[in-house]
Amino acid sequence: MSNNKGDINGVVKKQPVSHEVTTWEKYAYTSIMCFTMITYGICNSTFFPAFVDLKYALNTSLNMIALISTFMCFGYIMGSLIGFLYKYINRQFTLIILLLIMGFTVIFIPYSDHLWQLYLYFVLIGMCAGTWNSTNNVWLIEMWQKQSGPIMQLSQFTYGIGTIIGPLIDRSYLLGEKDFNGDPMNAHLGGGGATQVLPDLGLNITAVVNGFNTTTTIDDSLERKRLLKTPFLISGCLHMIGPCLLLIMFIIRKYKYVPLKNKDVVDKSTLKLFNREGAPKLLIIIVTCIFLAFYSISEVIYLEFGATYFQYIPIRLSASKAAEIFSAMSLSYTIGRGVNIFVALKVKLHIIIAYHFLIIITAIITLLTVDQSLLHLWIGSLMLSFGFSPIFPAVFAFIGQHLEITNRIGTILIFAHACLNIIVPFILGTYLEKYPFVFPVGIIMNVSVGIVMYFIMLYIIRQTKRKYKDLKEYKVDKNQIPLKECI
């Protein structure tokens, strides 16, 4: 007996292939992926506050350390392209292997004796991160479909939790920049004797032993490496928990998803807007890629150079104080994403994106007025992180409402998200020490391009909807969980 059945006009239609993931699998995989986002956030926010200490640990300059971001971005781009191979290799198992590699690599960073070793480690970390970001976003949209808006915010909210924890782990182990006398501005060496740190020569520690003054010289770079081993060990070990949980799921309940093809859909009006015949699918992908490319530069500047920027502005904060503000920014970033889990239930995604762009612009103006005002710095920094918080997941989910995000399309979008970030360290690493204002100026320039691309996206969507006036909301299967239960 045939499994096909005819419609009222006698035309034979194929029945859709079942592609539903069970409720238990949704919750289990989403929980593991959110936990992994926490540890991923911990790792990312552990690296960048340590830039100054890595500079002295390897006896090099800040612009050479800043190239870490370039190599990490290069690896990220390579990792994002792995999505093209999922047609031939298992996505879940590939992700498990790469996340484990990332965890081990993080642990070995403080053991680097040469810059090339450090760069190699960050290429590997970037490759694993690119694969994770590409796969995680596609996977969540794939499981939750029309309900993915709040879930994407939840995923990024958990990442934000990790970015709060990372600097707090770092804080007790950073010596930071040296002051004008050559002393670390966040010295951790204590004791009863006088301590003096001479630039590039090491630590001269004077102590009283049996009634005599004794001076011992300790290599500053070795001390910094010793201190950095602890936070990187903690971050790396935490990050390996997620892939171990995914491996358990792979063994007991391997993830399977079979997407519906256009030819399998009986009612064409239920297709997403840009999956309909004649829709400008390629155009919306290109515009979204341009948006992600320029907007992501702004987030990279903020996430990777925020703590370093605070140490070179006229106020010249210590490494500890800079890490404290950066941790508060991460808290604001996380709160913003947490709030938007619920806001996304009531407010349309394109409106959320629009008013957060206004918050970002206001924050940049505030940062540009900072001279010796610590209050202005706090206000501008917290506003900036809150403004950034929902935009990337909201845009991804917004496009996912109008276009089926496949492994291939997700790979293209994540590739675009990373491709221009490779130039950021060359600019920030070269000029940040002498011209700290490149930090806020760089953000506002790229955000401006992003805003223009965003309005072009809205215009394309509006015009396409007019073309298909019979457009109906993408139908949610009756077996799917109601939107209000997504969180």
From TrEMBL:
GO molecular function term, any single one: transmembrane transporter activity
Transmembrane annotation, as ranges: 27-52, 64-86, 93-112, 118-139, 232-252, 282-305, 352-370, 376-399, 411-431, 437-461
InterPro entries (UniProt xref): MFS, MFS_trans_sf
Keywords (A to Z) from UniProt: Membrane, Transmembrane, Transmembrane helix
Domain of life of the source: Eukaryota
Keyword Transmembrane helix: yes
Pfam families: MFS_1
The protein, known as: Uncharacterized protein
